[in-house]
Amino acid sequence: DNSQQNRLLSTVRNRLGQIASTLQAAIRFRRFSRKESNATPDWFVDKSHLDENAAGDKDDEKGPTCYGHRIVVDPTKLSHYVWLMVVSLAVLYNVIFVLGRAVFWELNNKAEVTPLWWTLDYLCDAIYIIDALVHAHEGYLEQGLLVTDPQKLRAHYLQSKSWRTDILCVLPTDLAYIWWPPFECDLTVPCPVIVRLNRLFKLPRLWEWFERTETDTNYPNVFRICKVVLAILVLIHWNACLYFAISYFIGFGSDNWVYNLNGTQNASLTRQYIYSFYWSTLTLTTIGETPVPENDAEYLFVVADFLAGVLIFATIVGNIGSMISNMNVARVDFQNRMDGVKQYMAFRKVGRELEARVIRWFAYTWAESGALDEERVLSALPDKLKAEIAIRVHLDTLRKVRIFQDCEPGLLEALVLKLRLQVFSPGDYICRKGDVGKEMYIVKRGRLQVVADDGYTVLATLGAGSVFGEVSVLDIVGNRTGNRRTANVRSLGYSDLFCLAKDDLLVALADYPEARATLTERGCQLLRKDGLLDEEQFRNAKDTQESMSDSIKKLESTVETLQIRLARLLAEFTASQAKIKQRLTRVET
Fold this sequence. Notes:
Layout: H1 2-38, H2 47-61, H3 78-103, H4 105-109, H5 114-136, E1 141-142, E2 145-146, H6 150-159, H7 162-168, H8 203-216, H9 220-250, H10 264-267, H11 269-284, H12 296-327, H13 329-348, H14 352-369, H15 374-378, H16 383-399, H17 409-416, E3 420-424, E4 429-431, E5 439-445, E6 448-451, E7 458-462, E8 467-468, E9 488-491, E10 495-501, H18 502-509, H19 513-530, H20 535-588
Antiparallel strand pairs: 1-2, 3-10, 4-9, 5-8, 5-10, 6-7, 6-9
């Protein structure tokens, strides 16, 4: 008995140990699974994580952070663009005057401008230092959101090349003035201001401002030409400074090629710079007609200048030609289309009068809108932005229509995308009495006349903002006119009209049944006012439509019930089939 009890106890202990180890393993697995579920893969964006980031972004928007305070610069704001312009002016100052003052000593040494140079130099240095701080706190886009975390901004700034140029351009090279007095370089080239050449490392900010302006301006081609002209002038200026410096090292007046300081006029600063600029222009543009070099150094410099002129200026002139062509591309395209139409009319012999009318129509469209093809221009935009532009342009016009007043905003937004602009020439009939009404018209510009059948008697005149044909596009049953035009409408001069087709309206109303009922009721009121509505026919059609709607609803509910029953039967069939398979398996085994 004792041996049996001992064996039983040992068995129970073993089982308890197995259960305990199993529980421990389960607990470890549960903890591990929790960690795995909490750890989100890199490619998966967790909603709660996004909510936390959004909350953090809202906090960041309150202000930027540096030493506990918020300092984040949004590069898309106007204030940032204005700051870039200020930095660009400082860069241009250094680009032009550092080398110019280093070579033309009289420009640097004039006592009356010495305080001005000190002020401008160190004002630009202050702008550079502030810009380095601004650059370090500029936000950037990550996954479509503006990053405002200060640590990320600093890391992004240090990973770029910008911090190197920002440091290089503010190095205190002016300390060399301690041993080399800045304004004592009489007949000495270069002057001590040459130590400030490191300020030119800020040029990338100038290019950034150029790109931003080219993107934002409404006249990009004009700005590109101005930018190229500025680049040409700067290159000629630098080359003029090099020519004057080489003349100094070779010796002024030592031969006919170098600059000659002899004479009162030649010794003046104005003559020195103008002649150097003139020589640089002739050389870089490969025009020539300059004194022939007389020693090896002069020959090497002229050869280098000619090569630079051929390569650089050929590229620049090519770019200018391309820009000018782009400025005229709309006119050239319009002229080609007009020439094609004129050739077709001449081939088909349509007559002089019609040819003249077509040519006058072309001239009017070019004068008013530059023959702008709105659909082609906006084709590159996403649908959302197209809708926004259409709403801004056409929504006020559409609200002038009586039947569309107080409509749902969603319906109006859908309709503005359907409006099409049409231009009519003098004497053109927009519609004639008896025509089937398939469009409604809104007058944007011009004057229209409602004329009698004789074509001479004027019954009414329509101006900008007038609307006609709005009832016919609703296709109301009971309209005694049969949705036909009741008057002749003719364009007095050139007229611009917005057109809304019946099919486009019905497609838009399919998603707004309540709005369709409201518009139909308003159209009926207009017809009742003119005595053009057959009430009995309208009521019969309305009752028929309501009965059809009820029948459709009943049919939909019946179909839904049948689908539910079919799903249940399918589930029962699947379950019974599984049971039969299990029984067959048991029988076989």
